[in-house]
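Weekly sync, protein design subgroup
Attendees: M.S., D.O., the rotation student, P.L. (late)

Item 1: inverse folding check
M.S. brought a backbone from last month's batch and wanted to see whether the design step gives back something sensible before we order anything. D.O. pointed out we never logged the input encoding, so this time it goes straight into the notes. Structure tokens as presented (232 positions):
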């Protein structure tokens, strides 16, 4: 079996935000696909602090991975070894490469079991006040300045034409630059929601304002996990 396991959005997330089944699964599964070994071990310790770290066998699954790199793990799964997939934050396979192994599992008739947990973009969407019936999640915007400008303006146009909410994110250390670009390129009346530190009881920040209003009160987003939404 292949378990799709949620990770916390914040290290300060209360444990009762999560399904009790997660701890039981982690206690019984030793093999995991992770984007980063250090983060993977921290997440496992968060849910099952009594589990021996020495029992863990972690396989790197990042944006550079291809299924050919994961032959050892695949052979083990074919032999009946259970695996879990852990994202850096939130649910796996959304904004991360976990889908590679999920697709392979389906092709090889291995049961895939998703476990419920927090998704930053879904929580941001329901808290934004925007259209939650029709929306698009774009992951990360281009790094190149000119391409980013075109993409921001394209997303804004899509909101105007369709009413669909447009959702995207950025690497936390580039959040402030993205905010500056959004304020620079969006029309003053366009509504922008910023949802940062979601699920952190102390520092969670979710606000929806026009671009013009955001210009008057710039938030500090450097190295803070955040989701950005444009909508109506």
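Designed sequence read out in the meeting:
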């Amino acid at each position: 079996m292949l378990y799709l396991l949620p990770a916390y959005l914040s290290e300060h997330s209360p444990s009762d935000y999560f399904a009790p089944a997660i701890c039981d699964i982690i206690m019984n599964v030793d093999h995991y696909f992770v984007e980063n070994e250090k983060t993977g071990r921290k997440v496992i310790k968060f849910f099952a602090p009594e589990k021996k770290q020495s029992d863990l066998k972690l396989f790197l699954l990042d944006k550079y991975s291809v299924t050919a790199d994961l032959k050892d793990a695949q052979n083990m799964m074919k032999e009946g070894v259970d695996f879990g997939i852990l994202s850096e934050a939130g649910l796996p396979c959304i904004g991360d490469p976990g889908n590679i192994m999920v697709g392979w599992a389906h092709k090889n008739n291995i049961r895939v079991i998703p476990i419920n947990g927090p998704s930053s973009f879904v929580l941001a969407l329901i808290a934004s006040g925007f259209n939650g019936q029709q929306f698009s999640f774009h992951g990360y915007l281009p790094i190149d300045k000119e391409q980013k400008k075109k993409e921001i303006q394209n997303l804004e146009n899509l909101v105007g034409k369709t009413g669909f909410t447009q959702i995207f994110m950025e690497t936390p250390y580039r959040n402030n630059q993205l905010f500056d670009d959004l304020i620079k390129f969006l029309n003053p009346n366009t509504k922008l929601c910023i949802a940062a530190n979601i699920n952190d009881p102390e520092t969670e920040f979710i606000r929806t304002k026009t671009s013009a209003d955001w210009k008057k009160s710039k938030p500090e987003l450097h190295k803070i996990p955040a989701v950005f939404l444009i909508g109506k």
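Discussion: The longest strand covers residues 135-140. The two ends are 41 Å apart (CA to CA).
Action: P.L. to compare against the previous round before Friday.
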